[in-house]
Amino acid sequence: MKIITHLASALVLQVLALAAMSYIAPQESIAAFQQQTTQRICSFDPVADLLPSLPSQRSNSLLAYLAKEGFIQNEEGAWVCYVNDPNKQDRYYTLFKVQEIDGKLIASSFLENGNLIAGQESRSINFFMTLVERHMNTSQENRQSVRKYLETFVSLVQEKKIEASRRGFLFDQPNRALVLYHSLSTGELDGTAITINIQSPNNLSAESVSSEIKTSLRERLKLNR
């Protein structure tokens, strides 16, 4: 009788173990799927989250990798993230934008009427840090400090503790990288923006390098006159 009891107990344990495994496996698959579908920085649409990324665009831009994050390149050569206005039907506006200007990377996260939309705070940090990791000479420890600085800055903006101005805050000395919260003077979006300015980014495009060389030559000619 004892042997039968032990066998029954062992059988129950095996059944419970199999049931637990069969429950964990789907849960892990669901978690992995959810993580996979929410990794892109520019993907605020539930339907878009389920769709695969667009094929990489043929571009000489060193920012072309952002296509995998849901960005597209506009006619001006800037990489932008468009989102649907949650308050107005059939209205889209630019949420994120980055472009290379005179050898500098200028990246912005736009706030309509001074407010961040749901999910914008964390994705702004991911957006900025993607550029930091790709275009700045930083160590792992330094990147952690930069992330903490930017997280704090964006949080203070969200809490209305920083007013819009033209003042830039240095968040990385060696790379002369600045972050600022400022009003918008042009464009359709009526509001403000959080912008980072990487003044000496790595891997400048050939066009920018050529432009910098030409500028340097012009300055030398002026000095020689």
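That was protein one. Protein two is written in the same sequence-then-structure order:
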Amino acid sequence: MFLFVAVCLSTVASAQKLTEKDLQGNWKLSALETSGMVIDVEKEKIVLPPEMEAQLTDDQKQQMNAGMAQAMEMFKEAYAKIEGKTLKQTLGPEGQEGTFVLSQKDGKNILTLTEGDGSTKEITVSIVDKKLRLEESEGGASAVFVYAKQ
């Protein structure tokens, strides 16, 4: 029994550890998650948490949907490209590019990105259901970029 549990736990632990090879390629943005809200690029819709949606008037919802429709083209063009130890990530006119080191910290895969200006940031990286997830936190806010492989 103990051997079975040990084998199961080691399989789960090893399945969670990513290598640089796992990350390589071109990835297209499929969703963006922030503040409990999900922007589903593939379905071209926004999903709000129930408590947030309950606070919006119909007019506010219409305005939000109209703004989202305009921004959707930008989201459809967003991508992440990982080549060797280089990450290039775009979202409209914004983006980041640099070299990275992949490591493990507290049981998570951490991509430490060094940008051209020498600044560094830690990005939690995982692959769930064959989709790349990059989670960034800054100033108390966090965002999860979900990409499908191209």
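The first helix runs from residue 2 to 16. Keep this in mind for the problem set.
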